Amino acid sequence: MARHVGCEVVSADRIDLAELRHHGDVEARPGLLDFAVNVQGSAPPEWLRARLAARLDDLGRYPSAEDVLAARVAVAARHGRRPDEVLLLAGAAEGFAMLPRLTPRLAAVLHPSFTEPELALRDAGVAVTRVVLAPPYVLDPARVPDDADLVVLGNPTNPTSVLHPADTLRALLRPGRIVVVDEAFADAVPGEPESLAGEPMPDVLVLRSLTKTWALAGLRCGYFLGAPDVLARLAHGRPHWPLGTLQLEAIAATAEPDAVAASHAHAEQLTRDRAAMVDRLTTAGIAVHTPASGPFLLLHVRDGALLRKHLADSGIAVRRADTFPGLDTDHLRVAVRGSAEVDRLIAAMRAAEGMG
Q1: Taking the mean position of all CA atoms in its chain, how far away is CA 349?
Q2: Is the pLDDT of residue 2 over 50?
Q3: How many other CB atoms are there within 10 angstroms of residue 340's CB atom?
Q4: For 207-265, how does the pLDDT look when each residue is reduced to its tens digit (9 = 90+)?
């Protein structure tokens, strides 16, 4: 008998698709200090911009098979995989949009988590069950229904910043089930200790994004790692030239050893910045969910909707978190930023508290 312990089955007519479509970029209006979007920096580093600029003269030609292969080979080498285990994507969102091609009977989506996978599955008419985790948002594989043949989760998870142990993820495996692990923020964790990217498994798909660490949100770059037959199912019906020349160049460039070393150094600095930010926020009396492993923090505040408005009026954008299933209006997500930006955030929050 199928087991549905601790799952939330929500009928499609009760789902607010607009909330599932909501992302932090909507909140980060021009001119605001941006704590709403998790991209690190406002533009790619100089060396990467130079690599991209060097390809501008090639834009009069279609992307070549050699460029595609070079990007796949670079990504494969970065993760110790074969090139045929790499599917290049126009951003992680394209990867989520492909999931219905796996034709699951029942998809289990873990929450609170990034909502794009659930939206893509529901838009395609796939049956979805939500596994909603309560604080401290620790995953118990036994809560996932046995008859779910597709399971989707993030690691580290957006917006809770929880990093699930790799052994816990492996415990989700069942015959006939595919587990999709969204590792969009895995390169923000020093050493990537819980990543499954380097473990070829026939029933695990790992999704990676280049948006956050490399400030490439506007270029749309990412990739799937998985078994070739599963990747072929995902790519079925895809148009010719799905990625442009600059996207392919960016993917290849950021997978090279020097770039990977730079991302590891960035992860170390991010860890220090996050620890300092947690200390500053908690000292100011703000509840921060810890332990945190991503480039963002989940806050629990009073009168969250009003606080967001006060912060916006003070020139600061934060991410509302009530659009994530399992959270409410008193939850906010903030990106990890430097000390000067955190000073402004705390001062504005204190001022808002005085106004309230």
Answers
A1: 27
A2: no
A3: 8
A4: 999 988 999 999 999 999 999 999 999 999 999 999 999 999 999 999 999 999 999 99
125 three-state secondary structure: coil
- Which amino acid does the sequence have at 77? A
Structural contact between residues 155 and 181, judged by C-beta atoms closer than 8 angstroms? yes
Neighbours of 179 (CB within 10 A): 24
Beta bridge partners of 72: none
Phi/psi class of residue 195: alpha, beta or left (left: φ > 0; alpha: ψ in -120 to 50)? beta
- Strand spans (E) along 21-177: 33-34, 86-89, 107-111, 128-132, 150-154
Question: By C-alpha distance, which of 153, 181, 215, 177 is closest to 79?
Answer: 181
| Rounded Cα gap, residues 344 and 4, in angstroms | 45
Q: How far is it, in rounded angstroms, from Cα 314 to Cα 347? A: 10
What's this model's pTM, rounded to 2 decimal places?
0.93
* Section 31-43 average pLDDT: 89
Half-sphere exposure of 49 (CA within 13 A, CB side): 7
Residue with tokens 């964790």: 189
CA distances from 208 to 55, 95, 183, 257 (A): 24, 9, 5, 17
What's the CA gap between 72 and 66, in Å, rounded?
Answer: 10
**Rounded to whole angstroms, how far apart are CA atoms 337 and 348?**
15
**Which distant-in-sequence residues (6+ apart) come within 8 Å of 339 by Cβ?**
273, 276, 280
Dmax over CA atoms of the chain, in Å, equals 61
